[in-house]
Amino acid sequence: MRTIPRPLVLLAETLVIVAGALLVFLMLLTVADVGGRAFADSSILGTVEISTLLMVAIAFLGLAAAEIHNRHVSVELVEAYLPPVVRLILAGVRTVLITLTGIVISWGLLGVLTSAFERGETTSGILRLATWPMKGILLVSFVLFFVVAIWNAINEFLDMKEGKVVEDDQLLAVQQAIDDADDITDTVVAHRTEEKK
């Protein structure tokens, strides 16, 4: 499998760090709000609004990194048993479908973002926070995710076209992990045997 361009990886990893920092901030805000309610009989104004908006960023900023590191769920029940030419056709169809889906979703999110910005859309709570920044984060997250997903799909198609079995790398990694586990097991068993003597 061809590698993803380094700037794209760095951007995705940076967004994961931002999501992690926002999660820590959200936890601290929640603890402070609950502590204020329990001990000082007052809460932090707008905690629910802030939390709601932050959850959007936290949930979606890591999409591209998850795709880069192959962390999304994928199920292959039939494809692995199909002839290479059929798998190549399916890889091509998959690439086209991912591209079309990415265009439709990104276009729709751009419309939602533009509409929210033009109308000055805000939350309905006390703080009346603008919603467009989080809708912008949602758009950027999905665009970046689809760029990575399309990149992966195209490269998978090209690898198959060149006759490279995509799973070879994965099988080698699994076999290496099994071999490493066997080595560790042998070492532990040998160590315990020596202790008993």
Automatic annotation (TrEMBL):
Q: Which positions fall inside the Tripartite ATP-independent periplasmic transporters DctQ component domain?
A: 26-156
Membrane topology per record: Multi-pass membrane protein
In terms of Pfam families, this protein maps to:
DctQ (PF04290)
Residue intervals passing through the bilayer: 7-32, 44-66, 96-117, 137-154
Q: Does the keyword Membrane apply?
A: yes
Instruction: Quote the cellular component terms of the Gene Ontology held in the record.
Output: plasma membrane
Report the main location listed first in the record: membrane
**Per UniProt, which keywords does this protein have?**
Cell inner membrane, Cell membrane, Membrane, Transmembrane, Transmembrane helix, Transport
Can you tell which superkingdom this protein's organism belongs to? Bacteria
**Cell location:** Cell inner membrane
Name the family: Belongs to the TRAP transporter small permease family.
Q: What is this protein called?
A: TRAP transporter small permease
